[in-house]
Amino acid sequence: MKSSFLLLTLIFVIAISCKKEEPPIEEEKFRSLPNLPVGFNVDINKDGTDDLLFRFAITWSGPDSIPTKYFAYVRSAYDRKHLFLRKGYETIFMDDLSQIKPVPDTPYYWHGKERNSVADLGRLQSIDGGENWPLEWTLYAPEVKDSYYIGVYLHDFQDRPDSLGYVKISVDLENFKITELETGML
Fold it and tell me: What's the pTM value of the predicted model, to 2 decimals?
């Protein structure tokens, strides 16, 4: 009886000590809840007054208040500052400075004549109600590039037609960190 018990114990120890072969690790397609990026302000004409505000927001869902979507947007800091957009894509991202003009060519236009101007930059949306998130944000641009220009009119068109400015930014799609590369007046 004692030998049977020892034999069973030995078999049990051998069985639990055997290492199973792990399946190959697949490339991760999703991640857990990411951190919300930090917003910032931009003073385009360096007069000590912020002209653009880059911000982030969260959509919450369910009784447990689980975040399901992050939004990134830019808005003018005060009334009578207008953002330059492209119809069709409804994007604020321009490829180069030559596209930003006081009287824009089609399909471009100035947005926000009577109030603060707001434009969406991108989003990150959970695929299952808050547990799993894509690895990269969706950028509201026709194509992904190293940098983009955003045009802004700093005053009313009639008051100061020379107050056309821009900010050049880069966007990291993994964490949507927006980096201000340069600002200036056109």
Answer: 0.78
Q: With contact defined as beta carbons under 8 Å apart, do 39 and 32 qualify?
A: no
Q: What is the pLDDT of residues 26-44, one digit of tens each?
A: 556 677 878 888 999 999 9
Q: Torsions phi, psi of 17, nearest 5? A: -85, -15
Dmax over CA atoms of the chain, in Å, equals 103
Sign of CA dihedral 53, 106, 144, 60: positive
- The strand pairing partners of 149, in sequence order, are 94, 168
Q: What's the half-sphere exposure (Cβ side, CA atoms, 13 Å) at 163? A: 16
Determine the Cα–Cα distance for residues 107 and 89; give it in Å rounded to an integer: 9
Report, in angstroms and rounded to the nearest whole number, the Rg of the chain calculated over CA atoms: 26
Distance CA 177, CA 186 (A): 26
pLDDT in tens, 74-124: 998 876 678 888 876 568 899 889 988 888 888 888 887 656 788 899 999
Q: DSSP assignment, residue 58?
A: E
Q: Report the C-alpha gap between 44 and 182 in whole angstroms.
A: 9
Give strand pairing partners of 86: 91, 108
Give the alpha-carbon dihedral of 114, 116, 122, 126, to 10 degrees: -110
